[in-house]
Amino acid sequence: MVGRKKRKSSKLLVNLVLGFICLIWLVPTLGLFISSFRPAADILSTGWWKVFPHQSWVKSGETVQLSEDLDLREPIEVGGKTFTDEQLKSGVMVDGERLMWENRRARTLSVMEQGWQFNPALTLDNYKNVLSGKEYRLKAADGSETVQRGSGLSQAFWNTLTIAVPATVIPVLIASFAAYAFAWLRFPGRKTIFAIIIAMLVIPLQVALIPVLKDYTALGLNGSYLGIWLAHTAFGLPLVTYFMYNFISQLPKDLFESAFIDGASHFTIFSRLILPLSVPALASIGIFQFLWVWNDYLVSLIFIGNRPDVQVMSMKIADLVGSRGNDWHLLTSAAFISMLMPLAIFFLLQKYFVRGLMGGSVKG
Amino acid sequence: MSSQTTPAAPMKAPSSGPSERNVPVKAVLISLLVILVNIVVHGAIFLFFRDSGLNPLVTAFLAVLWGVLGVYEIYYSLNWAAEQYPDRVRRKVLPIIFIGPAILLLGWLVFMPALRTLYLSFFNAASDQFVGLDNYAAIFSDRLMGIALRNNLLWVFIGTLACVTLGLLIAILADRSSFEKLAKSIIFMPMAISFVAAGVIWKFVYYYQPGNEQIGLLNAIVTFFGGEPQAWTSMLQPWNNLFLILILIWMQTGFAMVIFSAAIKGVPEDILEAARVDGAGEIKIFFRIMIPYISGTILTVTTTIIVFTLKIFDVVMVMTGGQYDTEVVATQFYRQFFMYRNFGYGSTLAIVLLIAVIPVIIINLRQFRKQGGF
User: Fold this and answer.
1) Do A113 and A219 reside in the same domain of the chain?
2) Does residue A155 contact residue A309 with C-beta atoms inside 8 Å?
3) Are the CB atoms for B106 and A238 separated by under 8 Å?
4) Of residues B97, B39, B14, the one with CA closest to residue A270
5) Residue A319 falls within a domain, yes or no?
6) Which chain A residue has the Cα nearest residue B298?
7) Per-residue pLDDT at B181
8) pLDDT band at residue A171 using 50, 70 and 90 as cut-offs
């Protein structure tokens, strides 16, 4: 440590380089965040960085009148220089001032000066629109007007939550029971079964999708909460079991022996002793699984398909990208709403999240 | 779970006695009844949710309640049934109850489907005619597939290489900087958001419109320095793939960094100090001491990111939908299966992904055995 502290100038360099990298990492998200509060027209006409004070050309109010019968197809002479019509459309520089068509037909040019500009127009309308859905006015044949709302994100938000909470609790509970059995019960085939579960850690879930979809269609599980819970449970189980096994098998043996002497059954030991002791591990892997489900797109896309009443947010946003690729005011606010939950969890429970991630580093 | 329901101490119970010879008819009946009641009750709840027209919020609340309590109830009732048996039988039944649900789900939804996909891959589009290895041969003659394989290789090589080197670099920089925690949080944050949201973020960065005023950050920078704005993700083939891979790097570098950071802190300080005393420069220390010391971690991180990039799907789907020659194997799989209804070829693509991860499976198993897993 002493040697390190001596190198002050190199520390400054390290800080600068790292600061620059962090800036690069942060800017894309910042752009999305700021844009989501800008009016639709602003997003499309100027970059999001223009909400900060910046220098730009502003009209000074003065105008230059050119002769009315000027031929626009010929070079135009202004202030001793000649320009084409095209150049004047985008503005030209004459003696430190900028000239631009004010009214092309009347042949007037407006004079612009450099000036600081700071007029951030921010609004919450994007969020209102995207949460409640856009209003459509429909005219019926008899002339009466009805207002219909397109489906908004709020429904999708609740759907995602309804899917993600059980799809986290169910696998964590099932995996903990299994991990307990693998660690502390003796039964034939224990090693083989566990090895198969470890092998399943990296199996691409694409391999399972087609047959599972066939079963689901036959059973009517497609587009139901139960179906998607079970799918997420099964796809998450290998990792969660592995993680919980690593934790539960490390618990001291004396713990169990004294409980047995007191006459407790395995089920009692598990629910009264092991589960409370495993809370940090359960939180870590639970958060990991929750975010996994919350952020998932492929599994929902396949098992929910196009049933609008159970669609999750990632599908909604992907749809928005596809169908309204240029509606940036909707896209940015929708994306940010979907990021709220992960970001909140990330900043509040970072310690657990990192631990879950490190344990999950074998998962593909 | 009161002490009344757990009357016996299973471990020290003697396994002899007259009652043990009797077939516990009552216990068998009870357990069958418990299983039956569970199936009927949960089936009924499922049908209720499917057919009910309740307010979505109420449905959501009840569904969460059912999902969470239901699982515990199943274990609880099965365990209660098991306790009706004599000790000797119970000790055999208990492991089945504990691992049974996990095995059933994995078998039904992962293991068997993998085998069935393998089987389907030998059949034609409608799965009614055996075609042998034709689907596998088709992979090598299909032009789109050639592009998809090339792109997947690009993803795996460039994506993994960049994530690992950048992750290592940032971990070391952060270790020596004065704002380590903040920097790590910032780099790590994209890990928490979804690929779909990240897709929107980067679509906005890459956005292209003709003319001078650019609202996409990248094009604004390019025009600021006097360059021509570009349609980064569509027109610049094959370089557009690199711009998609950049998104993966942005998201996954944090993962590599966090794990490397932990590993670096594990390098003993006295070894580093000894090297410094001997006059070794920081760069030499890095290559001669740090890298060998954390080589195991580097291997783990590399394989994890390779597996992850092999299956890459969401980024491509959201950004380009696989157009403009950005197709990868996973999007091809989706297209074949859901758009062209070609079950045979779709299955084959899934199996190709599986074959690609087999080495990783072997490494995992070996690692586990080495750690003294059993």
Assistant:
1) no
2) yes
3) yes
4) B97
5) yes
6) A361
7) 83
8) very high
**A11/B contact by beta carbon, under 8 A:** yes
| A345 touching B (Cβ < 8 Å) | yes
Are A321 and B203 in contact (CB < 8 Å)? Answer: yes
Band (pLDDT 50/70/90 cuts) for residue A198 is confident
For A159, name the nearest residue in chain B, comparing CA atoms only: B60
The partner residue sitting opposite B110, judged by closest CB among A162, A198, A234, is A234
Examine residue A47 and state whether it is found in any structural domain, yes or no: no
Are A31 and B217 inside 8 Å of each other by CB? Answer: yes
Q: Which residues of B316-348 are buried (b: 16+ CB within 10 A; e: fewer)?
A: bbbbbebebbbbbbbbbbbbbbbeeebbbbbbb
| Residue B195 vs residues A118, B46, B202, B317: alpha-carbon distances, Å | 34, 31, 10, 10
DSSP state of A306: T
Q: From the list A90, A191, A267, which residue is nearest B79 (CB)? A: A267
Cα–Cα dist A201/A188, whole Å: 22
Cβ neighbourhood burial of B143 (10 Å; 0-12, 13-18, 19+): exposed
The alpha carbon of residue A143 is apart from the nearest alpha carbon of chain B, in Å, by 32
ipTM: 0.81
Indicate whether A61 and A29 sit together in one domain. no
Report the predicted TM-score, pTM, of the whole model to 2 decimal places: 0.80
CA of A207 vs chain B CAs: smallest distance (Å):
5
Question: How many angstroms away from the CA of B18 is the closest CA of chain A?
Answer: 22
On whether both A299 and A186 belong to a single domain, the answer is: yes
Residue-range definition of the domain harbouring residue A320: 153-362
Q: What is the pLDDT of residues B107-144, one digit of tens each?
A: 999 899 988 888 888 887 777 778 877 778 887 787 77
pLDDT at site B212: 67
Tell me, yes or no, whether A274 and A329 share the same domain.
Answer: yes
Which residues does chain B have within 8 Å of residue A361's beta carbon, measured at their own beta carbons?
255, 259, 300-301, 304
Note whether B108 contacts A26, CB cutoff 8 Å. Answer: no
A294 lies in the same domain as A158: yes
- Answer yes or no: do B215 and A45 touch at CB < 8 A: yes
Residue B314 has pLDDT above 50, yes or no: yes
Contact B354 A203 (CB under 8 A): yes
Residues 6 or more apart from B313 whose CB is under 8 A from it? A297, A298, B328, B330, B331, B334
Q: What is the pLDDT of residue B46?
A: 83
Q: B15-50: per-residue pLDDT in tens?
A: 444 444 556 788 888 888 888 888 888 888 888 877
Mean pLDDT of all residues belonging to chain A: 78
Question: Cβ B205–A31 below 8 Å, yes or no?
Answer: yes
Using the beta-carbon criterion (under 8 Å), do A298 and B301 form an inter-chain contact?
Answer: no
Nearest CA in chain B to A26: B186
- Which pLDDT band, with edges at 50, 70 and 90, does A78 fall under? confident
pLDDT category of residue A172 using cuts at 50, 70 and 90: very high
Whether residue A241 is found in the same domain as residue A307: yes
How does pLDDT run across A98-109, given as a tens digit for each residue? 777 777 777 777
pLDDT of residue A77 exceeding 80: no
Chain B positions touching A170 (Cβ under 8 A) are 67-68, 71
Residue A336 maps to a domain? yes
Domain B140-370 = CATH 1.10.3720.10: yes
Q: Could you tell me the CA-to-CA distances from A287 to A170, A201, A235, A341, B46 in Å, in that order?
A: 13, 18, 16, 11, 27
Q: How many domains does chain A have?
A: 3
Residues of B in contact with A169 (CB under 8 A): 67-68, 71
- The reply to whether A240 and A292 lie within a common domain is yes
Residues A91 and A195 occupy one common structural domain = no
Dihedral in degrees, nearest 10, Cα atoms A26, A28, A34, A35: 180
Report pLDDT for B164.
92
Distance from CA of A357 to the nearest CA of B (A): 8
Does the pLDDT at position B105 exceed 80?
A: yes
d(Cα A165, Cα B115) in Å, to the nearest integer? 30
User: Which DSSP state fits B85?
Assistant: S
Q: Which residues in chain B are closer than 8 Å to A336, comparing Cβ atoms?
A: 197
Average pLDDT of the residues of chain B: 80
Instruction: Kindly state the tokens that stand for B107.
Output: 């078998």
Sequence ranges of the domains in chain B: 21-120, 140-370
